[in-house]
Amino acid sequence: MKFSGTNVLVTGGSRGIGAEICKTLADFGLKVWINYRSKPELADALKDEIEKNGGKAAVVKFDASNEDEFIEAINLIVQTDGELGYLVNNAGITNDKLALRMKTEDFMSVIDANLKSAFIGSREALKVMSKKRFGSVVNIASIVGEMGNAGQTNYAASKGGMIAMSKSFAKEGASRNIRFNCITPGFIQTEMTEVLSQDVKDAYVTNIPLKRLGDPKEVANSVAFLLSDYASYITGDVLKVNGGLYM
Ligand code: NAP
């Protein structure tokens, strides 16, 4: 894989899919800024692991749904490295409830964590990347944003919104050579899906043509492709990484 930029910021990078994205992009030679919100020990351990393997990494704490904190972090990166080549908006939460029982606060908490954060990051990345006329952003949406899911009206809205938002950013960024794409993972083995009962997991696997949950590495490889020069003519697209569950 070939990368013309030198560094990347991964939100929610200290664990789960985000951590795998950080490791994969470091293996491809990018300096990785690992964002965490609540567990510095995980972010520091990941930085050490990347450096032990010969990669470059830095840790940056902020709440991705907090505008001031996100802007401050991007400023720090640009001051330190002279550019922000790539951004992966990966931070996300769930707060599942049937819609009839979902309070407006439950709905908005997920919109803020998943969609507002990606908007702030994409807008700020567009600003700094515009100066170099180069950049690529990948937003981690979800299969649920494409097909909906009972108990996840908030999450589905946040991820469906992310897909539509990325296409709009792609149209605004194209004249400056800045690409925006989405990945829509299906059911990937992380703490987010750990909470599902074995029965629920088995039911999903029955319907997945590849007959298994996905591995975070399989998402990370797709992120690397979309960020890289190999995807230089791809923007505003949605890459499904779901074992065929939704085609
Ligand atoms: P996870 O294991 O629960 O990790 C979520 C990450 O997001 C954590 O690092 C968490 O940081 C971070 N985060 C949440 N809110 C944040 C905020 N406001 N600011 C900064 N960081 C924040 O989840 P995952 O499975 O790796 O999911 C990663 C992304 O993939 C999410 O956007 C998720 O919606 C999406 N996705 C996952 C699946 C799946 O099957 N796992 C499927 C489709 C899409 P802290 O630890 O500091 O809280």
From TrEMBL:
GO terms for molecular function: 3-oxoacyl-[acyl-carrier-protein] reductase (NADPH) activity; NAD binding. Residues 6-186 form the Ketoreductase domain. GO terms for biological process: fatty acid biosynthetic process. SUPFAM superfamilies: NAD(P)-binding Rossmann-fold domains. Pathway: Lipid metabolism; fatty acid biosynthesis. SMART domains: PKS_KR (SM00822). Keywords: Fatty acid biosynthesis, Fatty acid metabolism, Lipid biosynthesis, Lipid metabolism, NADP, Oxidoreductase. It catalyses: a (3R)-hydroxyacyl-[ACP] + NADP(+) = a 3-oxoacyl-[ACP] + NADPH + H(+). Its EC number is 1.1.1.100. Homotetramer. This is 3-oxoacyl-[acyl-carrier-protein] reductase. It comes from Campylobacter hyointestinalis subsp. hyointestinalis. The gene is fabG_2.
